[in-house]
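Dear support,

Our group has been running a series of protein-ligand predictions, and this particular one with adenosine monophosphate is the one our PI (initials K.S.) wants archived with full inputs and outputs. We had some confusion internally about which version of the output was final, so please treat the block below as the authoritative record. The input we submitted was:
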Amino acid sequence: MQIITSIDEMRRFSRAVRAQGRTLALVPTMGALHEGHLSLAGRATDECDVAAVSIFVNPAQFTPGEDYARYPRNLECDLDLLVPRQVDAAFAPDAAQIYPPGFDTFVEPGRLAEKLEGAARPGHFRGVATVVVKLLNIVQPDVVCFGQKDFQQAVIVRHLIRDLNLDVRMAVCPVVREPDGLARSSRNAYLDAEDRPAARVLHQSLERARELAEAGEIDARLIVQEMRKTLGREPGVATDYATIVDATDLEPVERVERGSVALVAARAEAVRLIDNLILGPAGATDEDRLELVFGPALKRL
Ligand code: AMP
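Confirmed final output from the archive:
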């Protein structure tokens, strides 16, 4: 695996791949890699001849007072995890390269970025959109892989690719979970022994929504009430939002349909956690559910 730390070198790598007539997939990450990220890396190697993973803790997507300074960083450990996954390049630039002095141009996503996570973290998606466009311009991949875990982010990036005519295809991969259902996240490392079991209620609330929807319940208000009840079982977990939205405009729905999305955000003490579930027919796989929202899965070029 090639370890690349400069923008110029990354561009050279990408040009060489294209010159050989090979395809390139990119997985953007902030490091502290876990099985969720590694599933995206696996998808990248499935989709294209060459896979690159970027590791960059993007200061622009943290709001003031958030955990930018203490966000877990361990490049050596991340690289060790990528090698056995047949990743060809790790791109790990420093912040001064991505945001040099005088940097002053941002990508402003529209209304989708104002709700849910955007309401809780003003400016977050502007930072995400800006770094995604920069990474796509630097790496010029054929395919870029994102996780369903950050559902709103995936919807916003899909919009961004369309609105700005970016020449890249997007693959969205299912949420990878711990055995007890908790969605894998770099921030799970912040959970202490007391909060960790309580954090399961996020997933349990989504499973409750799934159960009701699959039993034929279509009243979103009633399902959301049940989700909140489940979340309320853990006094240490404070719900930020629990909702069921339309996957296109992220507006709450009244009637649940196939492809409606249940979303939760909650704090277990100081740790903010998010999770989601695409509601589909009983027995549908995660991939089937993703297809309801993002269309057919990509095929290898
Ligand atoms: P992050 O490093 O948190 O910015 O995440 C990088 C990418 O990995 C994003 O596209 C995330 O949605 C994705 N990701 C993070 N956690 C998971 C997970 N548990 N399952 C699937 N994808 C994930």
